[in-house]
Amino acid sequence: MKKDYYLVTIIGFLVGWLVLLPAKNLGLTLSADLISASVIGFTLLAPIALFVLKKLSRFWAVFDQFGKFAAVGTLNTLLDLGVLNLLMFLTGFYSGFPFAGFKSVSFLVGTTNSYFWNKLWTFQSKLPVTVAEYIRFGLFTLVGALINVSVASLIVNVIGAPAGMDLKLWANLGALMAVFAGFLWNFLSYRNIVFKTKTSG
Q1: Measuring CA to CA, which residue among 150, 79, 139, 149 is closest to residue 112?
Q2: Where in the chain does DSSP place strands (E)?
Q3: What three-state secondary structure class fits 201?
Q4: Confidence (pTM)
C-alpha cells in the first residue's frame, strides 16, 4: 500500500517537470512560480487521485488497478508530448509527414516506459520476461500505436487546424485526442492478455 503512494508520488513529480516542455513550446513563459506550482501541484495531486480511486475500489476492485494505469498513462502521455514537442522545437516542423514521424518516435518512447511500469507495478506480473510476452506486448502495442498515430495524423493533417488556431496548439490537441483514443484499448489488452494472471479478473 505505502509503496503505491511512494511510486505514484514519483510519477507526479516527473509529470510536473515533463508538462513544462509542451507548455514552453506553446509560448508559455516558464517563471519560477509556475515551475514550482507545476512540480509541487502534480506531486501532491497524484497520491490524492490514487487515494480516491483506492476508496472507489471497495465498490469495484478494478478501480485500484485502473488508478495505477491512469498514473502510468499520464506519465507516458507527458513523455510522449515532451519528445514530440522537443522534436518539433528542434526542427520547426509542426505538420505534414515530419509530424507523423515525430509522433511515431514519441509514442515509442512512451510505450517503452509503459511496459516496465505496467508490468512491474500496475499489473504486478510475477512472470519473468519472455520472448512470448515481448511478442504479445509488441503486437498489442503496435495496434495501439496505429490507433494513436492514425488519430493524431487524421486530426492534424486531414481535418487541419481551425482558422486562426496556432499550428503548435492544434498539433498538441491532436496528440492528446489520440492518447484518449488508445487509452481503453491499452488498458484492456494489457490487463486481459499481455500481463494476465490468475488474479487479474
Answers
A1: 79
A2: none
A3: coil
A4: 0.74
Residue 6: count of CB within 10 angstroms of its CB = 10
Answer whether 61's CB lies under 8 Å from 201's CB: no
CA dihedral 99, 101, 104, 106 (to 10 degrees): -70
**Structure confidence by residue, pLDDT tens digits, 93-124:** 888 889 989 988 988 888 788 888 999 999 99
Smallest Cα–Cα separation from 112: which of 137, 130, 147, 84?
Answer: 137
Kindly list the distances between the CA atom of residue 64 and the CA atoms of 8, 32, 83, 152, 154, in Å, as whole numbers in the listed order.
12, 35, 29, 29, 34
Q: What angle do CA 149, 107, 138 make, to 5 degrees?
A: 95
Per the structure block, which three cell numbers stand in for 5?
503512494
In the block, cell 515532451 appears at 82
